[in-house]
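Design a sequence for this backbone.
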């Protein structure tokens, strides 16, 4: 290496050393940079703490919400238990309709109450050519009333269960829909509706399993409660109302008696055994017949006063059923939904 090269490298080294010394931050700048680093680190720590707090708050909120729901559900369960006792397990459910029909009638049943929701008479029409439906108001009442531990239970307010298909057609043989109301511990009330082809009669059986002891039916009454709003079917409103009444027959009598032959509203209580009663309209009837008998009770009817009302009569029946107090008991009935034809009604064959 010659002398000039040595001088050149030496100058470059001197320049680099001078530049590095010149560019080195001062103590004040170093302190400032350290302060900024510490500040940024503290900000990051605060952010991480805030995120952790938010996650913790969200978890706490979820826990409180779940606890609130659990407490709410528990309170609701306690309220249902207080109101319905052993039937509280059937106090909540989803209402759904099922159809049992043949070539004569179409009976629609509901899971809530296990009751008849509507009845259509086939091969007949209303005055305006629409389907002839005897009643179809969801506010209609049908069910059993009884006491359990000094609280009244009404099956009309409870939810039944079924494994039946939604539509059951009695085309070539008898078909049925079975609805069950559970009370726990293998205790239940079961309704069986059965229909033959070509018939206006619906077999209706009430099966009590473990209910007699639960409701103390040896000492307390079992009441059947049925209330409907009968639809207007004919063109002549006044004439139809004048020919709409409530008929009934006592067990030991041959004569048929009537309510509302001339009154707007009538009610009758009786202590004599009843065989059947009929919500009778001008040309069609809804009849409930006891295969045994009704012990006692009350019947009522009231004409609709509104001129343009879609109904003609409010019917009511509150009747005590004959029970034997046994653990398992079946109480049989028959409905008749159909036309008021003498030969048709006369030939109904039922147990005496």
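Sequence:
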């Amino acid at each position: 290496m010659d002398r000039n090269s040595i001088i050149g490298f030496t100058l470059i080294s001197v320049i680099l050393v001078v530049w590095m010394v010149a560019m080195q931050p001062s103590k004040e700048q170093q302190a400032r940079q350290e302060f900024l680093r510490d500040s940024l680190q503290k900000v990051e720590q605060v952010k991480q703490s805030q995120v952790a707090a938010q996650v913790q708050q969200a978890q706490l909120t979820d826990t409180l919400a779940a606890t609130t729901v659990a407490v709410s559900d528990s309170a609701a369960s306690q309220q249902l238990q207080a109101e319905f006792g052993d039937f509280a397990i059937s106090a909540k459910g989803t209402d759904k309709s099922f159809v049992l029909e043949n070539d004569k009638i179409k009976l629609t049943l509901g899971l809530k109450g296990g009751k008849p929701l509507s009845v259509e008479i086939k091969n007949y029409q209303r005055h305006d050519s629409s389907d002839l439906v005897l009643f179809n108001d969801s506010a209609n009442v049908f069910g059993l009333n009884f006491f359990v531990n000094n609280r009244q239970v009404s099956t009309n307010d409870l939810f039944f269960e079924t494994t039946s298909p939604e539509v059951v057609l009695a085309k070539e043989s008898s078909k049925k829909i079975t609805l069950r109301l559970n009370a726990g511990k293998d205790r239940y009330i079961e309704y069986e509706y059965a229909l033959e082809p070509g018939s206006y009669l619906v077999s209706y059986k009430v099966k009590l399993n473990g209910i007699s002891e639960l409701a103390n039916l040896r000492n307390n009454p079992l009441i059947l409660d049925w209330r409907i709003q009968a639809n207007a079917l004919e063109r002549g409103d006044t004439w139809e109302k004048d020919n709409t009444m409530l008929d009934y027959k006592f067990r030991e009598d041959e004569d048929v008696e009537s309510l509302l032959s001339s009154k707007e509203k009538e009610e009758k209580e009786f202590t004599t055994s009843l065989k059947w009663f009929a919500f009778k309209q001008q040309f069609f009837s809804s009849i409930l017949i006891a295969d045994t008998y009704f012990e006692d009770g009350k019947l009522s009817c009231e004409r609709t006063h509104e001129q343009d009302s879609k109904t003609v009569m409010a019917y009511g029946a509150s009747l005590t059923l004959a029970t034997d107090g046994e653990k398992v008991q079946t109480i049989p009935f028959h409905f008749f939904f159909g036309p008021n034809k003498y030969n048709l009604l006369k030939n109904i064959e039922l147990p005496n």
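Residues 28 and 114 are 90 Å apart (CA to CA).
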